[in-house]
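Batch job 17 of 40 flagged for manual review because the log was empty.
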Amino acid sequence: MELTRTPLQAATPELVLASGSAARAAMLEAAGLVFTVRPAPVDEDELRAALFAERVALADAATALAELKAQHVAARLPGDVVVIGADQIIEHEGVWLEKAPDRTAARARLEALAGKTHLLASAACAFRGGSRIWHHVDIARVSLRRPSPAALDAYLDAAGEAALRSVGCYELEGLGAQLITRVEGDHFTVLGLPLLPLLQFLRDQGVLLR
């Protein structure tokens, strides 16, 4: 079936998102992009752990993971296709965090982050015609308040599964805003994608009209 494009997007090349993140797809859709989603079958947790063990810098690690995703998908797509890989790493007190598996772990995560500031590095990498041609990484700082036990339980009740979708156990664009006192950096970086630099890259590549 032919995809319907907005007037801002050219008919070619095809745009592919090498990420299964619903938040990233929602950002691209809200910006008027038409694309296909092809998540890269890579073990992100294992790769992230290896990069951490090698003491790779936070921004470099996020970029490496984004590149790996894009490269994996681009290698399987012949022709003039632009593939975007993306990744985000959260660092708290020198440790890279992973998603909480359940409510108990989410509560413990939010208690650990409460009253403190953590870092979020969001990276995007692009391949075209099988070659890496662009990347961008940005870091934001997010500070959380100290909610009362009752407020924290009420948040987890209301957020439900949404509290487990993000590593920080909050979504800035939703109820998670109730937990945040300050954001230093770009809004889209916190959501998991350096969107504005990506849109400029797509204009430079002729995917979007200038």
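Reviewer: the log was empty due to a logging misconfiguration, but the result itself is present. Residues 58-74 form the longest helix (17 residues). Unflagging and moving on to job 18.
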